[in-house]
Amino acid sequence: MLSDEELVVEIKNGSEAALEMIVKRYYNQIFCYVVRRIKDHHYALDITQEVFIKVISGINSFSSEKGKFSSWIFKIAINTCRNYFKCGMYKSTMREISICDEIQCTSNVISLLEKKEDQRVILNAINELPDFQKEVIILKFYFDKKFIEIAELTESNESTVKSRFRQGLCKLKVILEREGLKSDEYNKKTTGT
Amino acid sequence: MNIIKKQQEHDAIDCLEGMEEELYKDFSYEELRNIICRLKESSVKYPDEQQLENTITACKAYMPKVINIKNITKDVKLFDKLKLILTYCNKIYILVSVLIYVIGFYLTTSGYFFGSPYRAAMILSPIPFIIGLSAVFKSRSAGMEELEMSFKINSIELGLIRLVLMCIFNNILSLILSIAFLYTDKSLELSKMMICWCLPFVTISGISLFIAIKIKNYNFTQFIITLWSIFSFIIISSEKISNWILNLNALVIAGIGVAGGMLWVYNIILIYTRSVANEAFD
Amino acid sequence: MRLLIENVSKRYNDKQALDNIFIELREGVYGLIGPNGSGKTTLMRILADVLKPTKGRVLVNGQDKTDMDEKYRELLGYLPQEMGLYKNFTAFEFLLYISALKGIEKKKAVWKAQELLELVSLKDDAKMQCGKFSGGMKRRLGIAQALLNDPKILILDEPTVGLDPEEKIKFKNTIADISFDKIILYSTHTISDIEMIAKEVILLNKGKLLIADTGENLLAGMDGRVWKSKVSEKEYANLNSINDNGLITNISRKKDYMEIRIVSDKKPFENCETTEPSYEDMYIHYFKTKGGVR
Question: Could you read off the pLDDT of B144-153 as tens digits, one per residue?
Answer without folding.
Answer: 888 988 998 8
